[in-house]
Q: What sequence folds into this?
């Protein structure tokens, strides 16, 4: 028996769209993670600088 069914173009287009949307969501999540990490890094530096100034001056 051979399977002579043709692939459904609608389903294929939907599958590709879902893959593109998932890749875009991963990219946005990674970008948000980098921004969040940088923000917390800056806040940490400001707190450490404040503590150093508080103790030494």
A:
């Amino acid at each position: 028996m051979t399977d002579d069914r043709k692939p459904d173009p609608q389903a294929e287009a939907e599958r590709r769209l879902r893959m593109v949307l998932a890749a875009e969501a991963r990219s946005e999540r990674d970008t948000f993670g980098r921004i969040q990490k940088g923000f917390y890094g800056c806040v940490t530096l400001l707190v450490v600088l404040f503590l150093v100034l508080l103790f030494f001056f």
About this structure: Residues 35 and 49 are 21 Å apart (CA to CA).
